[in-house]
Amino acid sequence: MVLRESLLALMKERPINKITVTDLCRQANLNRNTFYMHYHSPVHLLSSIEESFFAVIKELIERSILDDLHVKSSFVEICEHIADNSDLCTILFSDHGNGDYLERVIYILHDRSIEVWREQMPHMDVNTLESYYSFISSGSAAVIKNWIKHGMKETPQEIARFIEKVSRSVEYSFMQ
């Protein structure tokens, strides 16, 4: 936990590729041997933190997919998890973090979304559905990044509701 907090504190100041093990150990008040018992580099530590966060989001989404495609509940849970981990997400989605991380999270819904849409809109070809998914997922990612960037003033439910409303509007006009 102390390494996580120390890394996030350092990443507020500079990107991961500018953080050394010495910097991290000094910040965490640990010796380098302790660090190397668990991680190879600061990038490895960040990767481990990202994977833990990603695993929780993936579980939330997969659990909601078992019933059917419940985008609304998925986005509420994703937004709540982001809010609960605002310190991490502020860094992950900043210029010092991994720019593609949020898109990776949102992409979890890809296969199931395409499958459901193929059933709902059999007249649409797969390339069109892929473009539609790209539009919806990129837009959702942009809304979440903007929410984080501006201090998460809205509740997770409000952001999720906005994403749901816009997505449904686009879906409705798309199905016409």
Structure description:
The structure is a single chain. This protein has 10 helices and no strands. The chain is elongated, with a radius of gyration of 19 Å. The protein has one domain (2-175): Tetracycline Repressor, domain 2 (Orthogonal Bundle), CATH 1.10.357.10. α1 (2-11) crosses α2 (21-28), α4 packs antiparallel against α5 (71-84) and α8 crosses α9. With 176 residues, it is mainly alpha-helical. The protein starts with a helix and ends with a helix. It has helices spanning 2-11, 21-28, 32-38, 42-67, 71-84, 86-92, 101-106, 110-120, 126-149, 156-175.
Number of domains: 1
Beta-strand portion reads under 5%
Report mean pLDDT, rounded to a whole number. Answer: 86
Fourth CATH level, the homologous superfamily: Tetracycline Repressor, domain 2
* CA-based gyration radius: 19 Å
CATH class category name: Mainly Alpha
Total helical segments: 10
What percentage of residues falls in helices of 4 or more residues?
Answer: over 70%
Query: Per CATH, which architecture?
Result: Orthogonal Bundle
Biggest beta sheet attributes: none
- Low-confidence stretches are none
State the total count of DSSP E strands. 0
Question: What is the overall silhouette?
Answer: elongated
Element-by-element helix/strand order: HHHHHHHHHH
CATH fold-level label: Tetracycline Repressor, domain 2
- CA(first)-CA(last) distance: 51 Å
Structural class: mainly alpha
